[in-house]
Amino acid sequence: MAPDRHFLTIVEAAELIAARKLSPVELIETYLARIAAFDDQLSSFVTITSERARRDARKAEAEVMASGARGPLHGIPYCLKDIFDVAGVRTTAQSRLLESNVAVEDSACAARLEAAGAIMLGKNATWEFAHGGPSWDVLFPPARNPWNTGHSPAGSSSGSAAAVAAGLAPMSLGTDTGGSIRSPAAACGVAGLKPTYGRVSRRGILPNCFSHDHAGPLAWTSRDLALIMMVIAGHDPDDPGSAAREVPDYLAALTGSVEGLVIGVPWRWLEDELPPSPATRLAFDAALGVFRALGAVIREVSLPPVRDYHATIRVTAVSELFAIHGKDLRSRPEMFGESLRYRIIAGGLVRAEEYLLAQRARTDLARATQNALAKVDVIMLPTSEPAGPLQPVHPSSLFTQPGYTSPFSVAGNPALSVCSGYNEAGLPFSLQIAGRLFEEATVLRAGDAYERATPWRQRRPALRSPALREPSATPETSTA
């Protein structure tokens, strides 16, 4: 086996495992060794479940050798943002409040991955309770961007995106309330999907904002995301927000063709309301050019002002954040990091009238978004600017910096981020593709076609090569 097996896609690794040409034990040891060698540079893991991983890899290898792989994720390693519960393993949310919190049950997503034969490597760094911003006064240091460790991997699924980009894991699950899967995917140059609201169960995931939280996958390609979605998507009667909708064959939808696909672009956002940097605009225009060459059609779409979406989600997010954490804020405020504490306090100042008006506004904005998507197949935008330096961010930035990701969280639509090139500093550009409700298959088809037509997936970050040493993450706390 080639020495770069840590950069196999899930599709590639699954084919080799099914053909008995790659052992799950070999694959797990490859990733554990790479984590030990490189994660002190990235802090992408906060818990490594090495004993569990080795045990499960031996089991998977025996099963594959005896009766073949039972599915495409059998023997594939994965990790989870550290707000997903796994029985017997710590869930800390990067907060001193949960330093000794050991889950007693699996989250729905973890249970589905385990049933599919996937193998957990550990838990990834996040922002405190998936909300506080990069902080140095919380339980663990913030994750770093593998393309440049002085830069941010964005958040809050920061460690998940960094681990996948660096080849420390082939996949991770994160959560997205206003962009927290797509923004890290963009910053780290990987693929990240926020599914339709309700498509993936959130049971067993620590909440951030009940009405906007989504769970979804991060991996190297859209094709990998399709495989993961076929496992984690589906109705969960124990999640009140879960949708009882049939799950399609996402992989079969990836035909490689976007001939006739109608792409909508809200040019007013890009040209008047929230113009991107010139370099980001050039990268976006170039991506549209690729789709034109593939036979897609570009049209303008009209959407409400982007700042209306931003205002609506921020009022909702801080209000629900206070509902979740207000009791602890009153009784032990010193246990929170400064950034999250500031934002929880802000939620306590929102009046019921303002919260209700935000919900009415959300209904209007969601309707306008669905009306726009009735005229096109997908909407495309940059996901975000390339990653900036890793440094403290003033908590007020939550309210003062609108972006292109929150509209599709407000409306609940599926939205994908894929890499669309690199800037002069070698940091990734990103393309966001949003679709109609429950049409993740169309979004993934567009992302997959773009990835096939461009060379960006061939490039990987180059990390320093120190001598092999123990991982920088804390030892596992597990009875599993």
Shape: globular
- Strand line-up in the sheet with most strands: 8-7-9-11-10-5-6-4-2-3-1-12
Stretches with pLDDT under 50, minimum 5 residues: 468-472
Helix and strand element order: HHEHEHEHEHEEHEHHEHHHEHHEEHE
Decide which structural class fits the backbone.
alpha/beta
Total helices: the number is: 15
The rounded Rg comes to 21 Å
Please give the number of β-strands. 12
Instruction: Give a quick account of the main beta sheet: strands, pairing sense, barrel closure.
Output: 12 strands, mixed
Helix content: 25-40%
N-to-C CA distance: 31 Å
Mean pLDDT: 95
Question: Beta-sheet strand percentage?
Answer: 5-15%
In short:
With 480 residues, the protein is of the alpha/beta class. It contains 15 helices and 12 strands. Helix 5 runs parallel beside helix 6, helix 7 packs antiparallel against helix 15 and helix 10 (306-331) runs antiparallel to helix 12.
